[in-house]
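B., you asked whether I could sanity-check this one before it goes into the benchmark set. Here's the sequence:
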Amino acid sequence: MADYGLEVRNNSDIVMIDSLFKNHSYLESGSVSAQQYINSVDITPVQLTPYAFIKAPTDYAYIYAVEQNVDTGYYDKISITSNSAQTVNWILYQEGHTKAVPDYGLTVYNLDATNNIVFHSAEDGYVNVINNRIIGNGNVSVVDADNNYFAVLGGTEKYQYSYSNGYYTEQRYATGIKYVDSTTINVNAFVYYLYSIPVAGGGGSGSGSQVSSGQLIEMSPPITL
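And here's what the prediction gave me:
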């Protein structure tokens, strides 16, 4: 909080203004008919990396990446991984503002830069953060799994490979979320990549992993969604 010096919460303890999320405003939302593994979605190009959230789907899913176009320098795609064929709803927030700064209301400036506005009251749909916490694998109690959106940062990244019956097979895992009930989601590792090809000879198997505490962010969508 030291860099902006202001935190505002509403009467439901939802963070409306703080420095952690840089007061990102609503960019766009949509859904993808995800097939198993990685699905690419075109988004409105933006210069700064947007925050991406998904609504907890019926099976595991995860925001794999926000992709930057090497030719333009803009972020213009998101990649969503899925454990099975399902619909995944997503929402994006951008750093910066889409509406002109008003001559009335509330305007907040970043203390580290002259005239760098981080919040103004005429903007639509700022990130409304309800929970931001460290979690492990398993069921997690949430405020509203039916309507809110989530992002998982960190967690388990691992792979396994083997040679069997003339085939080389590789599986990769990521930490995703799925819907359990209206106040519960499940966080766990799932296979987002499976590759199998015939090979001549060979044998054995192997695995690797990178494990860190997962950070779960729960936010409520803007009224303008």
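One thing to flag: The chain has two domains: 8-150+215-220, 154-212. Otherwise nothing jumped out at me.
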